[in-house]
Amino acid sequence: MEFVRVARSGQVPEGYVRRFFAGELEIAVARLRGTAYATSNYCTHLDCLLSSGKLVDEGIGCSCHGSVFDLETGDAVCPPATEPIRTYPVREEDGDIFVGITEEDVASGGPRRRKVVR
């Protein structure tokens, strides 16, 4: 696992979630109760952007249909989503946020919006 710098700590203030990239891997970085968290950026219900959602006491809430995911485990804690989101380890050092990703994460591109079949 390699820790990749994705943002300055000040770019993710308390109570906010933002979208960043670790190379090609799109992630949501949030700060809740002073701790930074990183997750995949797409809701497992209908692929809405979690970085457009809001943080709630239980975790990160999807703006489309209200699903909520635990920031530590990725578990869906409020429907309609039932599948978990991917979570990534986070370190903060010297005012920067680093996210731990593996070669497998990068190769797979991580969870992404599903392609629409026409």
Automatic annotation (TrEMBL):
Taxonomically, the superkingdom here is: Bacteria
Check the record and name the PANTHER family matching this protein. Answer: 3-PHENYLPROPIONATE_CINNAMIC ACID DIOXYGENASE FERREDOXIN SUBUNIT, FERREDOXIN-RELATED
Q: Which Pfam families match?
A: Rieske (PF00355)
- Keywords carried by this UniProt record: 2Fe-2S, Iron, Iron-sulfur, Metal-binding
Q: Name one GO molecular function term.
A: 2 iron, 2 sulfur cluster binding
- State whether keyword Iron-sulfur applies: yes
Q: Where is the signal peptide?
A: none
Q: What is this protein called?
A: (2Fe-2S)-binding protein
InterPro entries under this entry?
Answer: Rieske_2Fe-2S, Rieske_2Fe-2S_sf
Q: Which CDD domains match?
A: Rieske_RO_ferredoxin
